[in-house]
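I have been asked to look over a protein record a colleague put together. The record follows directly below this note.
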Amino acid sequence: MGKAEAAEESGSERTCIVTGWKGPPAEMLRFALSGEGEVAPDIRRRLPGRGVWTRLDAATVRQAAAKQAFARAFRAPAKAAPDLAETVDRLLEDDALQFLSMVNKAGQVVAGAFKVEGAIGAGTVIGLIQASDGAPDGAQKTERLLRARLGEAAETVSRINIFASRQLDLALGRSNVIHAALTTGEVSKAFLARAERLKQFRTGGAAQTAASVGFDASETPSG
């Protein structure tokens, strides 16, 4: 690794190999090169060797794979699978759901409309989860309760609506989960950071950044 590459890896900003956009690691995706010359997504930024970076955006990853941007960035043969963006999406989703299970074990999540309403009333909610296949009127009712309780401060509460009910069931060990609320805690913040990264990857930047929810998604909370 040359001096310029070492500086890129250790500095506070990374450069997208497709667009040239510069941003902090928490808002980008790292890729490493396997011993077989295959491009490997490194969503937790832990794989050894030199890494290259793209924006946290599915379209950008597809473009990088289609236009051989990885080979140019690594300056070596690099095989990028045509479905690389879909692989990244699945990894980000699995990572977020794994942390939702940790939130549940830490006692920082409540599920069910009645318990969610109680948490909102207590003012302890930092995130609301609505199943993507849930009825819109339930989400609207929860939203009205949140705004009535918190006013403008309701905008600081994250909204997560990217997981289907069956995914929430598995993560929380319950049946028919449609509504859930996250209460204050480090594990909750870690989950929110990961959920926001997944949202941003899918929308191309319409979600909050990991920094805005107060946690770097490459970190693992102590408890």
